[in-house]
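Lab meeting, action items carried over

1. Structure of the two-component assembly. Owner: GW. Status: complete.
Input record:
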Amino acid sequence: METTASDPQKNSKPAEGRLADNIVYFARTLRKAGMKVGPAQVNDAIEAVLAAGIGTRHDFYWTLHSVLVTRHEDSVVFDEAFRLYWRSRDLVEKMLQMFSPKAADRSEKEKKRAAESRVAEALFEGQKNRDQEEEPPQVEFDARMSFSGQEVLREKDFAQMTASEMALAKKALSELRLPDDEVKTRRYKPSGRKQRVDPRRTMRYAMRTGGDLIIPQFREPRVVHPPLVVLADISGSMSQYSRVFLHFLHALTEHRRHVHTFLFGTRLTNITRQMRYRDIDAAIDDSARAVEDWSGGTRIGETLATFNRQWSRRVLSQGAIVLLITDGLERDEVDGLEHEMDRLHRSCRRLIWLNPLLRFEGFQAKAKGVRAMLPHVDEFRPVHSLETISDLCLALGTGTSSNRLKTPMDWLRELDRAA
Amino acid sequence: MSAPLPKSIDETLSMLNSQDYVADRALATVLFLSLKMGRPLFLEGEAGVGKTEIAKVLAKALERPLIRLQCYEGLDISSAVYEWNYPAQMLEIRMSEAAGISDRDRLEHDIFADRYLIRRPVLEALSGEPGRPPVFLIDELDRTDEAFEAFLLEVLSDFQVTIPEYGTIKAAERPAVIITTNRTREIHDALKRRCLYHWVDYPNAERELEIVARKAPEANKRLSEEIVRFVQKLRQMELFKVPGVAETIDWATALTELDKIALDPATISDTIGVLLKYQDDIARLQGSEGKRVLDDVKAELASA
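Predicted assembly:
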């Protein structure tokens, strides 16, 4: 940041070029700070500053802001970058004095081109670095992995696996594909089923025969995958699973249209963007950096409250399925937890709870948290081996639980009997 | 003819002011740029901060027609852009049959004619009368799906739509486009990049007081001051949905209708439904917390 800030002063270009140059450098600064600023936006920024004319620092700020910021979250970054970059009051003022909107006509084109080439350079540089990072990950299929080997693996608990077995498990997980789960949209597609007439296509077809024959054409609603929201527990008691789940989630994100991923322990972290990285290791590393409370305590109620308040209305629209991965071992009082679970349950289409605690035969959780949460889930699924992650795929797929699966109420009754 | 566009940020600000819209300078800057550069204005913010109002005010101030497209899930071409009048087309076919017209080209020309074209908001926005391009409000874009968003890309960058049977319709003059969203879902970057972005925030106490004074002029001064401070305090609390400016105005109007000249715990408890819309929040405020906030407000006002 220091060097970019001092660059413009060293620049010995003619005065009118400086504003454009400075905006280009400023955009690069923003890009380095992680904002998405493309060359077209830099052009727009210059155009906007020319359009707004000479003004105060405040106006200049909002002019650049309107073009360069496209997400509310980025406002903070922009604010800080603006403060640092245009630090010297004089710089802005001088800059604003330097160009006059009337004389800009001819030089404008040159400015744009200068800006473009620089931005292109900067972009290209970034691209190269990215390419190096994104060396194709080794994705050769392990042919030695025999069928029986996989079987053994499937029955095994992650907690007891060795490193090499873990690698195989990860692979199996990343090969796992979800079957289609679908919701009807209010859009239509042509159909052979004679239920709804499609007037537009009917008329077009009628024109083929010059209007002699009007043969009805039909349509039916299009179906799409609903969004999937995953809330995964990464507290201490879940630590042995969390990495594996991350792999599962990464595969899921790659495969489905909308997957929002949140991790929680004592606080809630949204890692949806990190999960979108193509390379799985880069994605996991980035998520690991984003999360501050790995393997710490659990505050399920509190984090769910945060989710409900800040995110539920943003990600749970359009009939989302919520996948909650936690052992339900709540530290805090459970009054809040029950309330928040209830709210979560009411604001999504389907709430599926995966509990890895079930690795012990005869699951009898004394935990109050489990008791509080059970009444508010649509499905309660054991997740302790690969076998049951396939079960999860089925659960997400058809939405109907097979006979051998107990409903959350059955589990609750079993708990009561054991107590 | 419509009123001329504002020539500077200050003019934009006074234009908004003349229509009783109390804007901050940031918003005026963005609005001015959007008009000057012919770019759509993308407004994001919580519900009830006056996003939709901007479009209405703009249309009024510029004396242009306002065309509103309310988005919803499943919004499609036939309800957003155009539709053919099928019954009338069928009739036309039968009529020409009776008249013995068998020329296909002519028939097609007759059937897909302007008079059978039902114009929906997008098409309306692109075909405004000369010299008076409309203000086109695309409201709550986040409620629709990506497919419609992608369709908007063409409309917003070239200001044209293509109807297969009819041809391409291009706007002679660009309408002033205002897009609002409540962020119930993230809008794709490609669309945002074609627009000027602005996050509409809650106003500060001073500006909100000004808004209440303009929108609910019959409200007593002391009452308005208490109301605004109370609402500002609520916005700092971790509520499920904090009240917007629209709610503040409603509350001020409601309390004036009830002939109140100052806030008291009983009144708050009775009328809190105007301000808060979630049961949890209401329950919280009806308890001791409501009284505590009110006491803070009173103490602040006494010391001020």
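2. GW to write a short summary for the group page. Key points so far: The first strand of chain A starts at residue 183 and ends at 191. Residues 104-133 of chain A form the longest helix (30 residues).
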